[in-house]
Amino acid sequence: MQVWSAQFISFVAFASGQISSYPLAVIRTQQQAQAFSSNSHPVSGVLSGLTGMYEWNGFRGYYNGMGASFVRAIPCALIN
């Protein structure tokens, strides 16, 4: 296997993992920030967080900030 194909396979695995798990990271961040803000939407669990995120921001709300996360994480994934 050539080096470029191994890096491509590594990138595809990384990208699919990021895309599938990023909404959970958004919910986790929202729950952590909720303790410091009085104007946030109350979220008591993952399922209510996912449904609430869809109600407030639509499908795009699940992936807010993902571009910056990719720019930061892609070089790290290619090095490893």
TrEMBL record:
Source organism, top-level taxon: Eukaryota
For this protein, the record's PROSITE patterns field holds: SOLCAR (PS50920)
Its membrane topology, per UniProt? Answer: Multi-pass membrane protein
Q: Which Pfam families match?
A: Mito_carr
Q: Which Gene3D superfamilies match?
A: Mitochondrial carrier domain
Q: Does the keyword Transmembrane apply?
A: yes
What does UniProt give as the signal peptide span?
A: 1-17
Keywords, in A-Z order: Membrane, Repeat, Signal, Transmembrane, Transport
Give the family, as the similarity comment puts it.
Belongs to the mitochondrial carrier (TC 2.A.29) family.
Q: What is this protein called?
A: Uncharacterized protein
